[in-house]
User: What shape does this take?
Amino acid sequence: MKRKLGPRRKPGTREGLIKSQAESRLRSLMQEVKCARPVERMTVEQVGKLYIGELKLVGRKPSTLRDYEIILARHLVPHFGRKAVDRITHEDVAALLRAKLGQGLAHSTLNHILNVLSEMTSCE
Assistant: This one.
């Protein structure tokens, strides 16, 4: 989400933020932000639906939304089942990658799957 941190300092003035001040303010805001969706005890399917709903609100392209829905339906939900998102381990993700490689999926597809999983479970 884009947020204005303050006015940009114009050369020769003392009003506004210089780059280092803006970066400092951004870091402090990032530390204050809490996750908007409680992912504890929610399944991959539940979190995925919430995530796609958020993407619709911010105006993602319909083709992107369709791609994410396909990744959820074909890859993530069948593999993780009813497992809670906060219970997914690195070993679980590695098992997903091994299974998908065994199915002959391209590495670029695996990257897309990992990106969607990472995006929907992160709180940034």
Q: What stands out?
A: The CA atoms of residues 51 and 120 lie 6 Å apart. Helices lie at 19-32, 44-57, 62-80, 90-102, 107-121.
